[in-house]
């Protein structure tokens, strides 16, 4: 009985993954993250009750107490998966995991756990003398097929991709909010796209490094999933620092198109304009892209010449399970499940624009 309970629980995992994908891709961009999470918890709790109803006869608990034991097994497996796999495999911070239990903040994850614990008991019916197990077998087979179909979505980024996203998120938060002076709101509110390249390598006046970019959707608080890209360019001075953070803000649709291209055939001769600073400084309305650089304790606008962009499909494959192009990600041509590091990046940008709006 407990072995069959574990098999059905393993079928619930891909149901939860698909539910999370629908939340991130369909609900969150339009309803916001808090509302999307609440709806997602309700739908997942309902799905667990449906799975319990479909499978309880096949699991075959002989008594109500045994049905409670099935729920206890499901609950413990869920908690172990959430905290151990969530933190050590997917890299979700402990604080983020604990935040799901804060019902006063509108989090309804406890509803999912309640359904997990009580579902088998609620759906339990004393078995007749001869139990028709065919329906339970069909349910188990359907869940197994769902597990196989959801397998590509469970691919998790390596430590390198996660570090890139978390570092890019930290750079964005610093230059947009914490730096004095920071990137002016007059620049940020006109952004069609934002790219951050943390810890680019400086070789004299030439810099190169990998980063991530997202584009704004129709609503300013909604941004696309991050796409991994590489950048090279020349700055007008040589720095003693071996590395620096680079931020590009696309001010026009043409500037965004530059960032989205898979690979520029030749370096762009026209330089990227140095970004303006100061809360009262008007933005350079004619510039397609503005560039900012942070090195050491300094933060300033910087001109970049002879620059080129290259998409990193292999990195995108590690993030999303398929080697999507930058354009596919930005234009929404794929079905993306966001790993925690990618979600943190997008949430940081959305939070900034919610505060500014």
Could you characterize the architecture of this molecule?
This protein has 357 residues and is an alpha+beta fold. It has two domains: 2-154, no CATH class; 159-356, no CATH class. Helix 2 runs antiparallel to helix 6 and helix 3 (64-88) packs antiparallel against helix 5 (109-123). The termini are far apart. It is built from twelve helices and eight strands. The longest helix is centred in the N-terminal third of the chain and has 30 residues, at 2-31. Strands 1, 2, 3, 4, 5, 6, 7 and 8 form an eight-stranded mixed beta sheet that branches.
The major β-sheet equals: 8 strands, mixed
SS-derived structural category: alpha+beta
Uncertain regions: pLDDT < 50 for 5+ in a row? 129-135, 144-155
Helix content: 40-55%
Radius of gyration, in angstroms, nearest whole number: 24 Å
Overall pLDDT score: 82
- The H-and-E topology, N to C, reads as HHHHHHHHEEEEHEEEEHHH
Number of strands: 8
Shape annotation: elongated
How many separate domains make up the residues?
Answer: 2
Quick summary of this structure?
By secondary structure, the protein is an alpha+beta fold. 51% of the residues lie in helices and 16% in strands. The longest helix is centred in the first third of the chain and has 30 residues, at 2-31.
């Amino acid at each position: 009985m407990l072995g069959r309970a574990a098999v059905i629980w393993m079928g619930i995992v891909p149901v939860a993954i698909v539910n999370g994908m629908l939340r991130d891709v369909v609900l969150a961009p339009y309803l916001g993250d808090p509302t999307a999470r609440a709806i997602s918890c309700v739908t997942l709790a309902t799905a667990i009750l449906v799975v319990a109803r479909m499978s309880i006869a096949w699991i075959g608990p002989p008594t109500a107490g045994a049905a409670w034991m099935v729920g206890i097994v499901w609950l413990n497996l869920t908690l172990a998966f959430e905290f151990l796999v969530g933190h050590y495999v997917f890299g979700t911070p402990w604080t983020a995991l604990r935040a799901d239990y804060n019902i006063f903040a509108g989090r309804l994850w406890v509803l999912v756990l309640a359904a997990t614990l009580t579902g088998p008991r609620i759906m339990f019916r004393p078995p007749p003398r001869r139990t028709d197990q065919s329906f339970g077998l069909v349910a188990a087979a359907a869940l197994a097929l769902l597990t196989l179909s959801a397998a590509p979505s469970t691919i998790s980024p390596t430590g390198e991709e996660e570090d890139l996203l978390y570092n890019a998120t930290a750079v964005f938060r610093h230059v947009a909010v914490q730096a004095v002076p920071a990137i002016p709101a007059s620049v940020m509110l006109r952004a069609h796209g934002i790219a951050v390249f943390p810890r680019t390598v400086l070789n004299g006046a030439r810099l190169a490094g990998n980063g991530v970019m997202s584009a704004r959707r129709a609503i300013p608080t909604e941004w696309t999933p991050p796409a991994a890209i590489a950048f090279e360019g020349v700055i007008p001075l040589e720095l003693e620092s071996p590395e620096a953070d680079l931020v590009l803000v696309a001010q026009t649709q043409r500037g965004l198109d530059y960032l989205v291209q898979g690979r520029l055939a030749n370096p762009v001769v026209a330089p990227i304009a140095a970004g303006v600073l100061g809360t009262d400084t008007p933005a350079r309305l004619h510039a397609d892209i503005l560039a900012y650089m942070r090195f050491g304790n300094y933060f300033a606008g910087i001109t970049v010449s002879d620059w080129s962009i290259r998409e990193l499909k292999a990195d995108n494959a590690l993030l999303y399970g398929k080697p999507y192009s930058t354009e596919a990600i930005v234009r929404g041509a794929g079905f993306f499940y966001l790993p925690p590091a990618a979600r943190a990046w997008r949430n940081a940008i959305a939070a900034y624009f919610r505060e500014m709006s």
